Amino acid sequence: MQEEETKEQEPFGESREENEQIQPRKGVIWGCVCIPINWFRMLSREMHWSFVFGVVVVYGISQGVGGSLAGVGTKYYMKDVQKVQPSEAQVYAGITSIPWIVKPLWGLLTDVIPIFGYRRRPYFVFAGFLGVIAMLLLSLHENLHLVLALLSLTAGSAGAAIADVTIDACVAQNSIAHPSLAADMQSLCAFSSSVGALLGFSISGIFVHLLGPMGVFGLMTIPSGLLILLGFLLDEPYMHDFSYRQVNQKFIDAGKAMWTTLKSESVWRPCLYMYLSLALSLNILEGMFYWYTDSKGGPSFSEESVGFILSISSMGSLLGAILYQYALKDYAFRDVLFWTQLLYGLSGMLDLVLVLRWNLHFGIPDYLFVVIVESVAQMTSRLKWMPMLVLSSKLCPSGIEGTFFALLMSIDNVGFLSSSWVGGLVLHMLKITRTRFDNLWLAILIRNVLRLCPLCLLFLVPRADPNALILPSESLDSKVAIDHTLESKNLELISLVSSVEGK
């Protein structure tokens, strides 16, 4: 009787053993769901929610979703509307990236010159308005001259760069205040960017097909509008009694602090490696894109197919960020960069297999193989980029975090520009045009060989623990940096940290 009563009390006739098996499964699933939630809550608690919100808006929506839409839209705009050659499109892509090279200027402005009593908020608002105006011009003018189109694209790029350097200043500031969370903050940036790119690429091909490239530029006003909203919502203290007469001296102090830090061997050596590793990674993406969409020599992918391929491949970037966060973030910089650079170089051979159509001999369709190739490329690129970002945040002296981090990022962007322009030159020399791709395999082979060259330069990178300080004491405690910090302590976004510590 007792056994029967016990069975009747069990819900839906399940035995107690079955319930005990189900409960741990539910606990595991709920635990997996809670891990990222608790991680976001921890970062919001340590750095204030507005900082996390700003990272999501800038990296996730503006650069992730917006960058994906703009990237695909610009490719088709140059190919179908402006009708330029792939080598020319490669050079024009470098021109529109120039605002990212002068990031130290934006960083110096946001570090030194407040506007209407605020240091960060007005720059987000200005970046948003600049992006809205540029995208509206591109979307509303049907026969825009190539020069004006390049100016508009460059202005939109400038808006994204200004927003990027402003949030980078916050990241560098918090990396110094919380050195143990530096990798977590870079993971937050990478996670936001990867998820945003996944969403952006998923809808990019559809919108390019339905609205055309110019219609996509119209949609780009939404991310720019969110930057304006961020400028109004950002938690930042109002600055009282700021004397603009001190601006010249602050520029001089910032320049001295930057030079003091940059001439240190522990700083210029990794900077040189970062530039060379990027410059040697030859950029021939425009040539590959023209081949992807060619109806004779290439697979002839449609707009929807290109967007869907890029959306799936962005999962590789997200996987790379997750792998770094949970498996690689505690390893020495030199060790991580060796394996990621090696993997990055070897994975480029997949493009060679694709262009030579060897995948068809193995029975692998172009569509599936391109998804694999792009996913591996995004993952290895993210794995290679993440430790360099953490290393860059560790090299920033206190007081001019935004300016110096922007300087380091501009060095990287000069590397990207070098690889883009040299890649365009290679495409031109090999006579790769809108309809001729006979030598594309040779361009890929040259690129892959150059990707392995940075392995010989790893001696420039420190073996330091990523959780430890890297800057020498004379750079961290230099009189210029400390004086600048003390004078502007309540001008920096350090309020996001101090507000937490005061609770």
Automatic annotation (TrEMBL):
Coiled coil: none annotated. The chain crosses the membrane at residues 49-71, 91-110, 122-140, 146-167, 188-208, 214-234, 272-293, 305-324, 336-358, 404-428, 440-461. Keywords: Membrane, Transmembrane, Transmembrane helix, Transport. Pfam families: BT1 (PF03092). Its main location: membrane. It comes from the Eukaryota. Signal peptide: none annotated. Residues 8-19 have a biased composition (Basic and acidic residues). Residues 1-20 are annotated as: Disordered. It is found in: Membrane. It is a multi-pass membrane protein. InterPro entries: BT1 (IPR039309), FBT (IPR004324), MFS_trans_sf (IPR036259). Belongs to the major facilitator superfamily. Folate-biopterin transporter (TC 2.A.71) family. This is Folate-biopterin transporter 2. It comes from Stylosanthes scabra.
